[in-house]
Design a protein that fits this description.
Length: 480
């Protein structure tokens, strides 16, 4: 055992033999200044010898009982053993030492931070993939390929692109999936929002336009961290409504559309309406005779799902308030929604459309007779989880890459850009300076990969002080 751990053990456990390495022992800890004072009568002591420790150094672990007072007393006693050479570790100092002694690289350190901050099962799994070392080995493999396979840069670019894709999936799991509930006023978005959360978080009543601002809540949906946004009802000045759109509501609509467009997933909530005769409205368009005009065919709502860039967003369409419809009417509405999906979406087959009754689910909950699928809400949650799974799933061969962090993804993007520049200049087949510029871009690409792990392919530490500062500023933790 090193001198400092030896001094600490001898001072806290006088006249007791040092336990064998990697063997747990129970000891009574005494105050170094007064051996009659017991700090902890049943502390667990573990001795670790370099390099077989988390930091690669000799270590002495003390697992003490009691609350903060016991911990403070033991920490104070340790400091008194040798004040000049013993001090409390700074934030992240154990991890810095682990990096310096090649027990961890930067990618594994970031994954450790994600493990400590994981709130959901999917976040925990993604973080563990990064800690396994498989991700780091993949990055080192890319570094080696840049050194010995410069003629195959395009193949390497393809592999880096896979890393980037997996990193985006990982960010969804790590930061949470943004889900927006959108629809016309009084469609039941806030009620559905409350059902998902299980709390009365949002104000709900029968006045159209109640939700004027965006209300958000973060919830664990069977292992997936989701931030769900209840947005203002979307309607236009030309729509048939009992009231005009005021400035406040108009601003709420603008924010709702902007929020939905920036979300990862959409839940479009549609509800039926009836005319003065009691018949359901199929919103006949006088100009075309179409029966698919109205709230369920509002192009503004469907265009949000389709996406401004033409990339269709993951989405679920729900027909709410089906308790007010007959089976035949429900069937007509669902058929109408399916026709509109085919009309407005590039890939309508991947958008589930299902009927629900939030009111029925609420009533059964209030009467104390809840059902697992009351109002078809159980089916909705199943469809929601399936959509989340699809949104975050990667091919089996990319599973170990999902632990990549946002910093790593940005470096991969930079690396890919440098490789594109290398290919651009290299394929011109001209003499210097173009050839020199091409090699310069290749070196920059390799340096991006060094910044991910903190080491080159020989294990030599790169210029990582600035990188360490960024990482430890984000992950204020110590590795035990």
């Amino acid at each position: 055992m090193g001198s400092t751990p030896h001094l600490i053990y001898a001072a806290l456990c006088p006249n007791k033999a040092i336990p064998a390495a990697r063997k747990i022992a129970v000891r009574t800890l005494y105050s170094p200044s007064d051996p009659t004072i017991i700090l902890d009568s049943d502390a667990v002591v573990l001795r670790l010898i370099a390099p077989r420790s988390s930091t690669g150094e000799d270590m002495l672990e003390l697992h003490v009982h009691g609350g903060p007072a016991t911990v403070r007393a033991v920490m104070s006693a340790i400091a008194d053993v040798h004040p000049r050479s013993i001090r409390a570790a700074g934030p992240g100092e154990f991890t810095r030492r682990a990096f310096a002694n090649e027990k961890l690289d930067l990618a594994q350190i970031e994954s450790l931070g994600d493990t400590l901050s994981a709130h959901t099962e999917q976040q925990r799994r993604a973080a563990l993939r990064g800690r396994s070392g498989e991700l780091s080995r993949a990055y080192h493999g890319l570094q080696k390929d840049l050194q010995i396979q410069r003629q195959e840069v395009k193949l390497i670019q393809s592999r880096i692109t896979k890393h980037q894709v997996a990193a985006r999936y990982g960010e969804l799991i790590r930061k949470g999936i943004q889900i927006s509930l959108i629809g016309h006023p009084n469609a039941g978005k806030s009620s559905l929002f409350n059902q998902i959360l299980g709390t009365q978080t949002s104000i709900v009543n029968q006045q159209a336009g109640t939700t004027r601002d965006i209300i958000e809540a973060t919830v664990d949906v069977q292992g997936y961290l989701c931030t769900i946004a209840d947005t203002a009802g979307v309607r236009t000045r030309g729509s048939k409504s009992h009231s005009e759109i005021g400035e406040i509501e108009e601003e709420g609509i603008r924010r709702a559309i902007a929020k939905a467009r920036s979300s990862d997933m959409i839940v479009l909530v549609v509800s039926p309406e009836r005319d003065n005769t009691g018949c359901i409205k199929l919103w006949v368009d006088p100009s075309s005779g179409s029966v698919d005009q109205g709230p369920q065919s509002d192009s503004a709502l469907w265009s949000i799902i389709q996406g401004e860039d033409g990339v269709q967003k993951p989405a679920i369409v729900v027909l709410n308030k089906v308790e007010t419809l007959s089976k035949e009417e429900t069937s007509q509405y669902l058929s109408s929604l399916q026709r509109n999906a085919r009309a407005f979406l590039s890939n309508p087959d991947i958008v589930p459309i299902l009927p629900i009754s939030v009111a029925l689910a609420e009533n059964l909950m209030q009467t104390g007779t809840p059902s697992p699928d009351a109002g078809n809400m159980g089916t909705f949650i199943t469809v929601l989880v399936n959509t989340l799974t699809s949104l975050t799933s990667v091919p089996v061969e990319m599973a170990d890459l999902i632990g990549a962090t946002e910093r790593q993804r940005q470096l991969l993007e930079q690396c890919n850009e440098y490789l594109k520049m290398f290919v651009h200049y290299a394929e011109q087949k001209t003499p210097p300076p173009d050839a020199a510029i091409a090699i310069h871009h290749l070196d920059n690409a390799a340096n991006c990969l060094v910044q991910i792990t903190g080491r080159d392919t020989t294990g030599v530490v790169g210029d990582v002080e600035e990188i360490l500062g960024v990482i430890f500023e984000k992950y204020d933790f110590s590795l035990r």
